[in-house]
């Protein structure tokens, strides 16, 4: 049983620990935010995203953190993530202009111009004096007009029926031509819907974009095979659109993914090999360009170049030959002479040279192992000099 006097100090200790922990967390949070802003200023955007994520984990209800992380994601071209962050910031505080600016910027880069314009208009309502919003709205209007212009297709004019007065003076052949043209136009089948597509690639993936605007996600079917991509779009009242190319290279179906946006379908294909695709679709005469590989064994790495390749082994042999044929004088010539003898000698000769040189303190150099192998080699002082041993 703990008395009240004993309990009170314990309670004070707990309060002290809690206060200290709170201060430490506050300091840690402040440090993370500061480091994140510094990383962004230094163009270390990936580090900034990571630091903002850590700060958000400590304070998940701070809209400024989501807005700032959105800006870092925009710099990294992670536009989908930037839209998500901006939406979260707006959800937490709808009065932050920069959140609308960043949402609009990310949506614009995703070619969702209507959504981007709505975001910019909301931001402009909060800060009418900020000219950035009006500039972005003009850009959105221009892109929306261009998109709508592409969707307007010239209608096929029906041939005007010839009147009786007009055909009286016509030859029968010309009348037959008019009738033939009329029947061809009448029996022409409705055009099959077509969507423009393009692609770009990274070492590890190929990104295919099908520009299908306003297609519901449940009307889009995308399947991946080992070397096949299958895209099907079924819109009521129209023939199904099927895009099913045999791909340039093999992919990993489990790692492939796609997303249906308001203006396009974005498909990411994970490559099996990090090779450069010269085209999206397979062609029999396609040339495979591989990424640089690490050489194995003793084979020297080769690098693509427009310059003539050099035989480095031949150059190395030439340098060694020049060193061997080099004419030296004095001690340099003597040292070279002994080096050449040692490099060309057999194992016994090398042992004899090493043993005699070491044991004689550099005064004797013998090549006869039978002579020096069984006894210690005594040093011989040069003429006019005396050989002494140092005592330790």
Outline of the structure:
This protein has 392 residues and is α+β, with helices and mostly antiparallel strands. The protein has helices at residues 4-41, 45-58, 63-75, 79-92, 97-109, 113-126, 131-151, 164-168, 172-186, 312-325, 330-344, 347-359, 369-372, and strands at residues 196-201, 205-211, 220-224, 229-233, 241-243, 257-260, 265-270, 275-276, 289-290.
Q: Which short descriptors sum up this protein?
A:
alpha+beta; repeat; 13 helices; Serine Threonine Protein Phosphatase 5, Tetratricopeptide repeat; 392 residues; Immunoglobulin-like; TPR repeat; three-stranded antiparallel beta sheet; four-stranded antiparallel beta sheet
What is the strand and helix layout of this fold?
Layout: H1 4-41, H2 45-58, H3 63-75, H4 79-92, H5 97-109, H6 113-126, H7 131-151, H8 164-168, H9 172-186, E1 196-201, E2 205-211, E3 220-224, E4 229-233, E5 241-243, E6 257-260, E7 265-270, E8 275-276, E9 289-290, H10 312-325, H11 330-344, H12 347-359, H13 369-372
Antiparallel strand pairs: 1-2, 2-7, 3-4, 4-5, 6-7, 8-9
